[in-house]
Each structure stands twice: as structure tokens, then as C-alpha cells.
Amino acid sequence: MPTPTLADIQAARARLEGVARETPVYRSETLSSACGRDVHLKAENLQRTGSFKIRGAYNRISMLGEAERRAGVVAASAGNHGQAVAWAAREVGAKATIFMPQDSPMLKVDATRHYGAEVVLTGPAIEEALEEALAYVAESGATFVHPFEDPLVIAGQGTIGLELVDQVRDLETVVIPIGGGGLASGIALALRESKPGLRIVGVQAAGTLPGGPGFTIADGIAVKKPGELTMSILERMLDDMVSVTDEEISEAIVLLLERTKLVVEGAGAVGVAALLHDKVGGSGTTVPVLSGGNIDATLLISVMRHGLASAGRFLVVRTRVADRPGHLAKLLTLLAEERVNVVEVEHQRETPDMSVAETGVELTLLTRDPAHCEEVLALLSEWGYPAVRL
Amino acid sequence: MPTPTLADIQAARARLEGVARETPVYRSETLSSACGRDVHLKAENLQRTGSFKIRGAYNRISMLGEAERRAGVVAASAGNHGQAVAWAAREVGAKATIFMPQDSPMLKVDATRHYGAEVVLTGPAIEEALEEALAYVAESGATFVHPFEDPLVIAGQGTIGLELVDQVRDLETVVIPIGGGGLASGIALALRESKPGLRIVGVQAAGTLPGGPGFTIADGIAVKKPGELTMSILERMLDDMVSVTDEEISEAIVLLLERTKLVVEGAGAVGVAALLHDKVGGSGTTVPVLSGGNIDATLLISVMRHGLASAGRFLVVRTRVADRPGHLAKLLTLLAEERVNVVEVEHQRETPDMSVAETGVELTLLTRDPAHCEEVLALLSEWGYPAVRL
Q1: Is the pTM of this model over 0.95?
Q2: Contacts of A356 in chain B (CB under 8 A)
Q3: Tens-of-pLDDT digits for all 390 residues of chain A?
Q4: Among candidates B106, B262, B343 on the partner chain, residue whose Cβ is nearest the Cβ of A298
């Protein structure tokens, strides 16, 4: 397959005009001061369908001939690519059939159907979905849209690079998530020629790399390695490729949510995670690409709870009070006097190692930072409520 | 106090250029189809400091003379206004002193300090903070910046209206949060002349209106009524004033978060809540102003959990299984076969009305909608695990 040229990416940009959004770029004061360099965020999570994937999918699907369009398009994906193909097919009036693992989150199934695609639920994992998709393609004559090993798809994703040239003055470093590598290849191709001295860094999720636990909250880039075409481009174009842990990704998600008011999914937050942990190198004006915002609300809740707890802004303790009226109130009054916010109180009457005259209490407290947590624990013990941190 | 003119608002816009962001407007497909009209969101939550308040604060503070600037500025606020005054004062090189109730969330205190202001923690409520602020003003000669009863503040907020004229074609209805009324007055003044037929609707939080419970998650507009100046403008300018409950606001927050990838605080979500509950009237292209995004992360978690539960996407049940190895696994296998996602399992060995041979289990399940919840409850009972919904 040929590597896309700058002209291919410019042509893609013309096709996408009025179709994809030119997503905004924001300077983040918090991140700039945390990272010691000017950090501007490319908010591609605000793209239609919630991720960059429609750029490539539309660029590919809009180039189909009349007969191909009638035969329809096919993808195998439980996530953003499936939604993007469904959306792009609807835009050009083609039929889309999306194959998904049978355990795909119902919300993603619904979103894909909502864009007018037929969803086929197949075996347990994406491999089976891919197999069935290819079998369907062979028999139906529909066009398979690959999520990254396709010059038109790569060129579509590359349009983000062209936008960055227009949007950010003095761009020195770009940080791009890498799963299959389509996004990073496209952006790198778009930027290499026009910005020769630019530093381009790819970020992978450590969880699904060889040696990792095999799982990551950055499901959008949960791929063992990039494709052949994308890898050949990345090897020539990238200055560095680094990885971040789920812990680091969670922290970045919470920071983006609280400080920039943007919902960013795991895959979209890896660039910020890498910056916060000083893995990017280079200097000057730096742009992490926030590639998407499709994070499941229940996962987001877990990530936020986890992030707040590890930042010490949440303290869950178990202690005991005398099981007589007024004793819990006394403890709560003491906490209030110290201006400690109590979020939740849970009684646990039946705890094995406790006398009948006592009752267990689980308290969730709002704290400021790890030092404040220690302070509160010391106070509780001083007041006669020795507490175990949970 | 004089009512600001269109020329005052235009002057404010010129002053704010390069200072405040011209925040983007997005068409929301989800909201447009849910509301049966074209809904475009004015994403003012992406404004610097996370709310519109810097527009008014900067317009006021940048007009101070050299001597006034040296004497500094003062505000009484536990929220967005305090942060905005701190931020605007730093921009013009003035000293800011912000009076806050002593129980203000530590994060807001920190954010305000972060912008360089001196924070004075005073009595239990905002009334005491205001009193102390005014006493400090009398003695120090600093300038008090009112959050809404000030023509320059109102003119600053009005710049949002001028942006809307440029950003949205065929604007027919605008929906604006109302607390003190500065935002709504300003926008209405900006739009009335240039768009004579426009429908302008203000939305209040029912929780803090007379007859309400006295509490609202929309803390940014938790004011009993607008000011004298703002009310006189609103009475002339608004087509209607409606209110929404905290339940309706929560739903809007979750929808904005999941579908548009924007973090919006309670006050910022009231317009969308009113639209979703058909309280706005009018028709055609409609713009709710998402006034801010400063929602505490712990509150956001509660709102999301609540929103998911009431949408039936979360089912928490208690049931019992035989307290022998393998019995819980059997139940989980049955659920897995029905493709029900289990988020949390909690054992409760000590439940009063249970035989020794049994153990209580609390399950948190991911479900699709209320009908799916009923289905799962029926299945559990069919399998011999009668479950109580919690």
C-alpha cells in the first residue's frame, strides 16, 4: 500500500470541510504550569461521534464509486471506529454493517445503531467479529473499511495535523496516542514537511503492550502493535514512542475533567499522562491530541473515585462509636469543627471484632491532599476514635 | 444605576478581545432530536476559569483608574465570581481580596488563591462574608466588585449575546440561567435590538426559589431573587422565566457529559434541563447557554450515579446464595450467560433475617434501561435468587 502524501491529506481536508468539525485548541494554564512548558490541547474529543475516527472513515467512504456505495460498507469494531463508519456511511447514503463482539457494551451497540448501521453481534472477541466481517465482505461484495491500514484512512486522520499548523503558532512538540497507528501516522505525515524541526512523540498504553497485564482503560488503543503500513510510517516519522500506565492515564482523565471541563476517554488522555510524567522530552509549545471522549459513564465514575482517592482528596475510614444516641453526632460535630466535609456515613452494626455496645461506622470524608488525610487520621485517634483507612 | 446600552456591550467586547475566549457553539444531534428542534450549545464552560464570570469582572476591573487599581478590588463569593475577580485583578495587575464563608470547599479556596488573590475566610454563610467585605472596603478604600448589580458587569456578560449573533444563523430562542440575573440581563440587552423577534427565556433553580427546599445542586445560581437593576432589565426583556428541579438538572448534566463530552455545572445545565422538559416554548434554532463547568468532582460522581440509576442503567440488588464454595460463582455465571455486566459484588455475611447456611450478596449490575432492570429482576427470581432492589 502506498504511503499517503501531503497532497492526499490536503485533499482529505477539502472533502471533510463542512462534514467533520475543525476542533478547537485550548491553552491549559494548569497543564502549562504543571509541565513547565506551554501546553495547548487539541480537543478532538469534541469531534462528531466523540472521536477523530470519522475523519478517516469519511475520507475512505466518500471516495467509493456509485456501485460500491450501493453494495455498502463493513467494519469490525466495538468502539469508535464502528461508530465512525456507521456515521460516515449515513452521510454518503451507504448501508453500513458493523460486526461487534457479543459482549460489547450495550451503549456502544445502541450508538452504532443510532447512526443507522446494522449491528451483527458475533463471538466473544474482536477476532471473531473480524473473521465474520471478512466472510460477509467476501460473499456480499461490500467494502471493508480497515481502522488504520488504509492510505485514505490515514490521510483523513492526518487532517488534524493540517489544522494544528493553522491553529498553533510556534508548535514545537506534538504528542499523539498510538493504537493501530493510523492517527499518529497521518498527523506525522501532515506535519513533517511543513514543520521540519518538530518533535513528534507517540504514546501507547502500557497495559496491552508485551509484558503488560493485557488490559487497559484506554480501550481505544488496546492493540498489541500498529499495522504494517502504519508502522513503516511511524518508524520514519516519530522521534520517540513511550508508554503510560492505567494509573497515569486515570490521573490525566481526572485532571482534564476538573480543570479543562473536557470529558476525555483513556486513549485520548495518554498524551497528557505522558506529559505529566515527563516522558515526552523536547520543550516549547506542546500539543497533546485528545483523540476522543467516548468513555463509559460507569468507568468514568470508577476512574474519578480512584483519581480523587489517590490524590488524597477522598478519605474512607472505618471507626467505632458507642452504640447509644448522640455518639455518632458527637463525632460528626468534632469533624465539622475541624471543617472536614463528611460525604457519606454508613453504619455497620455487625462487625465481628466489636463489642455489643459499639457500632462500626464507615465515613467518607473530603480531604485536601495526602497530608490532610494524615492530619485527619491523627485527629480521629486523638479524639478516641482510632480509625482504619479503607 | 443606568441600564447598559448596546454600545456599552460592544465596548466591553473590544476590551475583552484577547482576554476572554470567544467560546465555541456546537450543534448537538442528541439534544436536537430529543427536543424536536435544532439545539446549539454555547459552551461557556470552556471559558477561562471555567465560567462566564470573567467577562463582567474584567470589564469592570479594567476600567479602574490607576489609583483605584493600586487600592485593589474586593469580592464576597465562594464560587465563580470570586475566582473571576481574582483572575481579572491579576490580568490588570491589581490586588484582589476575596471574602468567603469559612466552610467553602477547599478546592475553590485553592483555585482563588492560585489566581493570586488573598482569601479571607469569614463566618458561616455568604451574608457574613459580604458584611466583612464591605467593612474592609470602607476602611481600605478598595473597590467592591458586585457579582451582578453593576452596569459594567452586566455589559461584560452581554458580550456572549454579541458572539451568538455572529455564531448562530437563524437564532430563534435563547435559554439563559438566572441567579442574580447579570448574565441574562446582559445577553438579553445584547440581543433584543439586533434580533427583534427572538424568544429569550430565563431559567431558575426551583430548589432555592420561595417554596423550594432551600437547596440546589446549581450552587452558581442559588440566589433567592435577582437584583434591583437586573430585575428591572429582565422584566422588560424576557419572554418567560421558568424553573427546573435538581432531578431535572442532574439528568441534563449526565446527558451533556456523556453525549457532548462537556463538563457542565448545575447552574450551567438548567437551560438544557428546561429544554428536555419542554418548559421553554418557542421553536426553531435554540441556544442554551452553558454558563460554567465548575462542579466539584465528588458532587459530579453523585450526580452521575444518580442519573445512571434513574435512567435504569445501573441496578443494585440484594439477594442471598448458599454459603458454600461455588454458589456465588454459579450466580455470576448465569448473569454472564445473559450478558449482564457485573460491576461490583459485595458479601454481607451478617444479615439478620438469613439462615447460617446462606450469605447475603449485594450486586451492582450494568443495565440498559428500566425495562431491562425488570427483566434482570425476573430472571434472578426464576433462577431461585429472589432479589430486592436497593
Answers
A1: no
A2: none
A3: 899 999 999 999 999 999 999 999 999 989 999 999 999 999 999 999 999 999 999 999 999 999 999 999 999 998 899 999 999 999 999 999 999 988 777 778 888 998 999 999 998 888 899 999 999 999 999 999 999 999 999 999 999 999 999 999 999 999 999 999 999 999 999 999 888 899 999 999 999 998 888 889 998 898 878 999 999 999 999 999 999 999 999 999 999 999 999 999 999 999 999 999 999 999 999 999 999 999 988 889 989 988 888 778 888 888 888 877 788 888 888 888 887 878 778 776 555 566 667 788 888 888 878 888 899 999 999 998 988 888
A4: B343
Instruction: For an interface test with A, give the residue of B261, B347, B350 to mutate (most A CBs within 10 A).
Output: B261
User: How near does any CA of chain B get to the CA of A265, in Å?
Assistant: 9
**Alpha-carbon Rg of chain A, whole angstroms?**
25
ipTM: 0.87
CB contact under 8 A, A257 and B297: yes
Partners of B233 in the β-ladder = none
CB contact under 8 A, A314 and B298: yes
Scan for cell 450549545, then name that residue.
B41
Cβ contacts of B267 within 8 Å, gap of 6 or more: B177, B179, B205, B218, B219, B220, B221, B291, B292
* Cα A258 to Cα B107: distance, rounded to the nearest angstrom: 11
- Rounded Cα–Cα distance for residues A60 and A153 (Å): 6
Task: Mark yes or no for CB contact B301/A305 under 8 Å.
Answer: yes
Which amino acid type is present at position A185?
S
